[in-house]
């Protein structure tokens, strides 16, 4: 199931999300189209995480493989909110896959 995904500037950083209903996991693909690293915070509406996000990276650093990265902490919604957040750096000219388990 596709999820609404937006970016302040799709020409720089594109974001695409989906829900895998078979295992209740949200997947987010982030494409950094620039020649520089970008640090960004993603807001994940209506998501309470069930653990850390798994990260996989495809970039100029290794064009022959998609490389697993260290897990990333997802900050659960604050009291009265339904939006979780995660912050990370998206490397220059890269595709990053985030796999977030959902409660």
Question: Would you kindly provide a written description of the structure presented here, covering whatever features stand out?
Answer:
The chain is an all-beta fold and 103 residues long. It has one domain (2-101): Immunoglobulin-like. 0% of the residues lie in helices and 58% in strands. It has strands spanning 2-3, 13-20, 25-32, 38-45, 53-59, 62-72, 83-90, 94-101. 16% of the residues are buried. The model has no long low-confidence stretch (mean pLDDT 90).
CATH topology: Immunoglobulin-like
| Assembly of the depicted chains | single chain
Compute the gyration radius: what is it?
A: 13 Å
CATH homologous superfamily assignment: Golgi alpha-mannosidase II
The stretches of 5 or more residues where confidence is low (pLDDT under 50) are none
Please report the number of helical segments.
0
CATH class: Mainly Beta
Average pLDDT level: 90
Shape: globular
Sheet with most strands: 6 strands, antiparallel
SSE pattern, N- to C-terminal: EEEEEEEE
What portion of residues is helical? Answer: under 10%
Distance between the termini: 16 Å
CATH architecture: Sandwich
The count of DSSP E runs of length 2 or more, i.e. the number of strands, is 8
- What's the number of structural domains? 1
How are strands sequenced across the largest beta sheet? 1-2-3-8-5-6
Main structural class: mainly beta
Task: Quote the beta fraction.
Answer: over 45%
């Amino acid at each position: 199931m596709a999820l609404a995904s937006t970016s302040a500037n799709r020409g720089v950083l594109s974001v695409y999300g989906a829900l895998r209903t078979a295992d209740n996991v949200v997947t987010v693909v982030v494409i950094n189209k620039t020649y520089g690293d970008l640090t960004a915070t993603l807001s994940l509406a209506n998501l309470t995480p069930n653990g850390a996000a798994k990260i996989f990276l495809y970039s100029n650093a290794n064009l022959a493989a998609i490389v697993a990265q260290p897990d990333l902490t997802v900050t659960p919604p604050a009291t009265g909110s339904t939006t979780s957040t995660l912050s990370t750096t998206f490397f220059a000219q890269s595709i990053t896959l985030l796999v977030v388990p959902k409660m």
